[in-house]
Amino acid sequence: MEELYALLDWVTTGQLLGPRPRFVAQFVSPILDGQNPRALAEAKVLSQEKAMELKKLIHPVFLQRKKLLVDAVEKEMKLTNKSEVTVWIPLSTAQRQL
Predict the structure, then answer these.
(1) Does the pTM of the predicted model rise above 0.70?
(2) Which residues of the chain have pLDDT under 70?
(3) In the 3-class helix/strand/coil scheme, how is 32-48 assigned residue by residue?
(4) Residue 74 lies in a domain
(5) How many CA atoms lie within 13 A of 66 on its CB side?
(6) CA–CA dist 52, 31 (Å, integer)
(7) SS3 for 84?
(8) Number of structural domains in the chain
(9) Cβ 47 vs Cβ 36: under 8 Å
(10) Does residue 14 lie within any of the structural domains?
(11) How far is the C-alpha of 54 from the C-alpha of 77, rounded, in Å?
């Protein structure tokens, strides 16, 4: 979840998820607490709710493609091979501190 935060924080210039401590308190802690095998039923429910809330929040900027869908689209459209370009961008001071 730390990687997710770092990427989305950078992409949205901190506007989507807010400050890291708030993200941890609002999403990371409840989600991870509920995944503990010894978690209470309430914590498990809260974990699921927070995971769904986070999914809805990031949906507009996070595109997730399933392999089956990608394979079907490639067959249908005869897509060309993917090309990748690496662009190095220096981190801000706040990002380096993460």
Answers:
(1) no
(2) 65, 70, 73-74, 76-80
(3) HHHHCCCCCHHHHHHHH
(4) yes
(5) 3
(6) 10
(7) coil
(8) 1
(9) no
(10) yes
(11) 32
Q: CA-CA distance, 56 to 16, in Å (whole number)?
A: 12
What is the widest separation between alpha-carbon atoms in the chain? Answer: 50
41 burial via Cβ count (<10 Å: 0-12, 13-18, 19+): exposed
Type and span of the H or E element at 56:
helix 41-58
Enter the tokens of residue 94. 């706040």
* pLDDT of 83: 83
Q: How far apart are CA 75 and CA 19, in angstroms?
A: 42
The tokens describing 58, both together, are 């990031």
Give residue 12's domain range: 2-79
**93 is a domain residue:** no
In a domain, 87, yes or no: no
